[in-house]
Amino acid sequence: AQKITQTQPGMFVQEKEAVTLDCTYDTSDQSYGLFWYKQPSSGEMIFLIYQGSYDEQNATEGRYSLNFQKARKSANLVISASQLGDSAMYFCAMREGWNTNAGKSTFGDGTTLTVKP
Amino acid sequence: DAGVIQSPRHEVTEMGQEVTLRCKPISGHNSLFWYRQTMMRGLELLIYFNNNVPIDDSGMPEDRFSAKMPNASFSTLKIQPSEPRDSAVYFCASSPSEVSNQPQHFGDGTRLSIL
């Protein structure tokens, strides 16, 4: 069974600093996708960034980048130049490839990020 | 473009009552997911569908829960009878396909309170 582990229940970062949110995963699939979502206090779930298991380059989307280390099965989210609006819960998720449970999705427990002014 | 639409946004009802949550996925999306979020258990996948067919319902907590997807544009999650421990935020999400590189797009959730 696939599993996502986020070991940091809460993180603090100073405004304008960079922060790394950790995520490790476990799967026997060769083909899978890794995702990060943001959930602000208002409750909606917002897709941030995607990394494919076969992608050799780390994904980037604006101030978000994903530090993908396949051998270590880690997919850490890096947020550069933190802003007050980045304060939220962040979830790491994985979707399995379609030769097993086609598209099944698993989420980690989340990390609450607080950006200090 | 319209996102995933869930209704109702809030539901308060007494235990023992039947509860029906509704979801309209994004048009053209072929995968649909139902999640439950609580402080204690986090975000749990209850069931997901590909092309209107349930693929995995192993997350459905018990027989009181059932989900249907009669067509590509509508799904329901039903709880009968409801219990206080079912109180949670229920999210519906859709994705273009079952391919693993497709993100999920979430609705705003239904906040369910069972008294």
Short précis:
The complex is a heterodimer of chains A (117) and B (115). Chain A is mostly beta strands.
Structure write-up:
The complex is a heterodimer of chains A (117) and B (115). By secondary structure, chain A is mostly beta strands. Chain A is 0% helix and 52% strand. Chain A has no helices and twelve strands. Chain A has strands at residues 3-5, 10-14, 19-21, 24-26, 32-39, 46-52, 60-61, 64-69, 74-79, 88-96, 105-107, 111-116. In chain A, the strands form three sheets. In chain A, strands 2, 5, 6, 10, 11 and 12 form a six-stranded mixed beta sheet that branches. In chain A, strands 3-9-8-7 form a four-stranded antiparallel beta sheet, with no helix packed on it. A two-stranded antiparallel sheet of chain A has the order 1-4. Chain B has 115 residues and is an all-beta fold. Chain B contains no helices and eleven strands. In chain B, strands 2, 4, 5, 6, 9, 10 and 11 form a seven-stranded mixed beta sheet that branches. In chain B, a hairpin with a 3-residue loop joins strand 4 (31-38) and strand 5. Classes of the chains: A mainly beta (117), B mainly beta (115).
